[in-house]
Amino acid sequence: MIEIKNVSKIYTMGNEQVIALDSISTKIKDGEFIAIVGPSGSGKSTLMHLVGGLDTPTKGKILVDGNDISELKDSAMSKYRNEKIGFVFQSFNLENTQTALENVMMPLIFAGISDKERKAKAKKALEMVGLGDKIKHKPMEMSGGQRQRVSVARALVNSPQIIFADEPTGNLDSKTGESIMELLKNLNKEGYTIIMVTHNTEHTKDVSRVIKIRDGKIQEDDTNEI
């Protein structure tokens, strides 16, 4: 489903060029649960942002279902992110003044459906992550684990093909982090492709494949027997 071909990302900082990714290539199949790991500054988040359509490569191609997303115009890229991609962030990225239901409804604003349908879809997504009884709660009234579950529900609400999770347990204690990993594993069993960036090597045992990045290059690409 995803093919990364000789992709490089170079940033210019003053008079200096910083190579975040250096001619990397790999393929990601439908239904895989992949962990991208590496030290800070290795390029792992850059790779996720490129495949997620949040940035474009300096060189190379990123093919999703045969289409080069790096060539998409702004409107087509927005459609790609809204319909095929769901994002889960370390810092949750929730609106504190809105309820869980309202936060999950946000990606549906441009879906061209009625308010009633948006609420029904958001409620269903919250029920999927075990928060059907928290739809009227605001983020500050919830625990860190519950807030991350709201973030996962928001990623699911448009029924995406791919879920990107950027350090999804980074702001959680170990027990709560394990519950979020269990949720992601269950979603993967339901058919979602999950690409997770993490520095926590404990979580690599829970995924089907580990891609290790260092200095902008893929160092290892291993399949787990789970």
TrEMBL record:
One of its GO terms (molecular function) is ATP binding. Keywords: ATP-binding, Nucleotide-binding, Transport. The keyword rRNA-binding does not apply. Residues 2-226 form the ABC transporter domain. Signal peptide: none annotated. The keyword Metal-binding does not apply. It comes from the Bacteria. Pfam families: ABC_tran (PF00005). PANTHER family: ABC TRANSPORTER ABCH.1 (PTHR24220:SF86), IMPORT ATP-BINDING PROTEIN (PTHR24220). This is ABC transporter ATP-binding protein. It comes from Clostridium oceanicum.
